[in-house]
Structure prediction request, 902 residues.
Amino acid sequence: MIDLTVNGAAARVDVDPATPLLYVLRDDLHLHAAKFGCGLGQCGACTVLVDDRPVFSCLMPVGAIGTRKVTTVEGLGTAAKPGDVQRAFLHEQAAQCGYCIPGMMTRAEGLLRKTTTPTEYAMRTAMAPSLCRCGTHMRILRAVRRAAVMRGGGVVDAAEPVT
Amino acid sequence: MSGQASRRDVLGGLLVAFSFAPAALAQTGGGEGSGGPPTVAPDLPGTLAKFPDLDAWIRIAPDGRVTVFTGKVELGTGVKTAMAQLVADELDVAIERVDLITADTSLTPNEGVTAGSQTLEQSGTAVANAAANVRLLLAETAAGRWGVAATSLFTRDGAVLDGQGRRATYAELAASTSLAVRARADVPRKRLAARRLIGRPVPRVDLPAKLTGLPSYVHDMVLPGMVHARVLRGPSSGTRLTPDLAALRRQSGVAKVVQVGRFAAIVGPREWPLEQALRVANRGRWVRDAAVPALPPMPAGLLTMRRESQVIDTRRDDPAARGIRRLSARYDRPYLMHGAIGPSCAVALFEEGRLTVWTHSQGVEPLRQAIAELLAMPVDRIRCVHREGAGCYGHNGADDVAGDVALIARAMPGVPVRLQWSREQEHGWEPLGPAMLAQVDATLDASGRIVDWRHQVWSNTHSTRPTAAGDLLAGSEVVPPFTPTPPKPIPQPNGGGDRNAIPLYRFPNQTIVSHFLPDMPVRVSALRGLGAHLNIFALESFMDELAVAAGRDPVAFRLAHIDDPRAAAVIRRAADRFGWGRYRPASNRGRGFAFARYKNHGAYCAVALDVERIPDEGRLIVHRAVAAVDSGEAVNPDGIRNQVEGGIVQSLSWTAIEAAGHDGARRTDYDWSTYPILRFADAPRSVSVEVIDRPGTPFLGTGECAQGPTAAALGNALAAATGVRSRSMPLAAGSPTPV
Prediction:
């Protein structure tokens, strides 16, 4: 038995500790926001927060989580009461197919927990592990900028290279 | 909104003349896959011509909720929202009261394949006109009750009113209004000034669920007692795995091995043990399927392949025109991957002789036919229901995984089965976008005008979408195998490899030749835009080369050769918004412009880019992208902006950095490290899209309009920035891959 704290609630699952967290979230806890994309840590569709850090849940063995708190998009808010990152993404209509967006939102949440005043470069670097095939990048970046403002900060367009 | 509806919103308003699409334009799904049923009511617009009865499209429940049935699917382009807007506005109900049912072979009209940027043209036109018809019928019911003329009534918020205090809700009226009647062609659409939703940036109806983690995709489906499956295949298309099935049966977590001929899959209650078993299986021996022809070196190899050539357009308006300077150039692109972020997935249940498949296929009806043949089952015992997947951008593994899961489910009656491909399987087996090559020759006269134009394009088919069992991967693995449908070109005016090969410009003399290559050394099919990506890249790159040769500004040169006023308006708007005339080039930095009307009958789109090439690294920075688009009547301008912004970024990735490799025996790219796509670091610094709305005009397909112009604008900007013209994609080849 493995004990977890997911979105503030205690959960107990009976799985092989080597099982990647993603399968536990989706198949055991029925939290479907985090998506399978590659199973290789290359695309970010499975990104969740462990404590405040974004991790690839397709690679993270569930047995390695310990007492750290897991946050998925379900923990950021609900359709009736979306959290501020979700509101920012809704406001910017920052999705096409939407498959990558939960990973984008948890990654943005991780960035904003670290700083609400990242530079443009820091924002793009923080988002870089996540892939979007629809080309929604510009809207996703606008949503992260908006969320930073909602948190009392803002993305600084510092005079440093974007790449 | 004013509390008093105007009498002019009344039903007897202006008659709107519906535009009739010529039969060839009405090819369902842009000519990809099967075309759906025949036209039975040519006087009716959109797909109403195939399904003229109103209850095929709209039903009103006793609680007043409106259900809309469309045979098209949501691929992430926002069409569900646009269709809900159309119906809510035309019917005069709140959009919150409209539910959409998309592509379900048991419930919705057969609208063929959702492809070719035709969903609003075909299904949107149908539902909007069906809604206008239903509104009139409900008013006629109220008129009968009240003993007045229907033309004296008006509608507001789901009710018919007489303006003197009498009001009947649609819910009341629907109970005594039959919608099992044929649509009338002369029912007016709502007049422009009375529209509340059409033309407005209504938020996407599907995003609140998707952004809060509610199950939204076929991948998220959970059915009682559902088991998971993984299919066993060689590394890539054209190979065959010989796994040790006895060893797999002993693997923990593998409850069953399903084997049908050479098709094999493993089934179990949990995903992770199956993933581990799949890795064990993949260590097995694989062989090259001998039937697959050898791969000539690309892209020059395309010129050596067996071909069927056809002149698709020719014009000799001024054979006496004297040219003084002739230019020629060749342009090419490699095989490209669809690269959906979510690998293909499907769920199926076989029970009491009936099979239900939940699928993210773009064509549930032709898929149903193919599965029926694969399983030797009557078609009417199979139901295919669309559930969304990750953005597919054409024919990827969606249909194949549905065929796979159908075979597995039939072997496990009563048990729902969910099959998800691995990332490596999606990269290895999805049909690729075909490699292509185009040669353009043109002659300038002494005044710098083009007097003769010749465009030739060499390409495989751009659609192997399934219409029969042999088109599914599983169909070639069962014994005896089914034969794939022979590839054939998609005829103009949509075109396949020759899509957008015919210039929209007015040249006095031109010849356009399509060299169709029937032999496919690599598995290929429809990738967003089909041949338009390479043809527009060639055409619009060459326009720039000719402008330079003629000593003309590229934008002015284009305007001098176009006589379509909407095309000219889009070109001018993009140039103005970009500040084309004020642009100051800098070292290694330049501007590029390109324009096309998608398929020559879809949306008009012009793109201007400001691009810098970092010396020594070869990396590109897109400082600014500005686009103008004319999609006809803009149902949802933000949806159009989202499509064009996305199209620009996606095309920058395709054009600058992507190429799918093959070593002659198998593909070489199995993940995102070997097939990189654009990441945030390389996304443009800004993208802005200007929508030119044309209210009251037909919808023009938008979903694929930006890819071609973006590709050419990038080539043109790089040529301006560096003085060196790149005609082979990927344009940033040779540059180190960003870390």
In short: Chain A has two domains: 2-75, 84-150. The helical segments of chain A are 21-28, 84-91, 101-114, 120-127, 137-150.
